[in-house]
Amino acid sequence: MSASYQEAAALFKPRPHAILFDAGFTLTFQDGARIAAYAEQAGLTLDPRAVERAERALRAELREKEGVVLRTHADRPDGWLTAVFRKLLVLAEVRASDDLLDRAAAAILSQHLAVNAWSRVGAGVREALGRLREHGFRLAVVSNSEGTVEAMLVETGLRDLFEVVVDSAVVGVSKPDPRIFQIALDCLGVSAADALMVGDSPSADVGGAQAAGIRAALLDPYDFYPWSRAPRFDDVAALTEALLRVV
What we know:
Blueprint: H1 5-12, E1 18-21, E2 28-29, H2 32-40, H3 48-53, H4 55-61, H5 78-91, H6 98-112, E3 120-121, H7 125-134, E4 138-143, H8 149-156, E5 164-167, H9 168-171, H10 178-188, E6 195-199, H11 202-211, E7 215-219, E8 232-233, H12 236-246
Helix pairs in contact: 2-6, 5-6, 7-12
């Protein structure tokens, strides 16, 4: 579902000068082929298509609860990511022993920390970002990650669309801490009132941005968060269409 025109108009006026984007599950998604290659190093064979088909179920498992703040990268993300990859293998209906699943999840994590596994660009993302640039919006990425987001954006051909990339592992502060958003604003040279944050997490992206005084939109393609007070959109392309229609 996507926000109504009235909700979009309230969010997009006055016109933001800069748009900050989350990375994983917003711009890019888990690459089944890459994850399968990583798991193969532990002796586990995966169907890349099954990995990608499991995304909805994985995100359902990771669904946030109203009033609970998600802090995946507040300390070290290793434990959280290992659990995410282990759960992904189960949801992809991989038939293997618990020991092999554990070893495969550890192998995927190890390789992900070197070369980001969220490297599949979302449908319509590249075109939507190009349209926003053409209409004069300044773009940045603000991501809770492991120091590999900028390299992943270069690899996928998205990096040139962004003026600034802020990776929590690089700057030493993670969402929802408002300081990470302020770092992006300072790099862009814009005020909080002139920015908009777009991401898939109600607490990290929406709550964190709002704590920094920034408007926020939630990407909620599976309608997991009807309780969110932020305007919700299916994806980056839908948000872009609504924004350009309003402004």
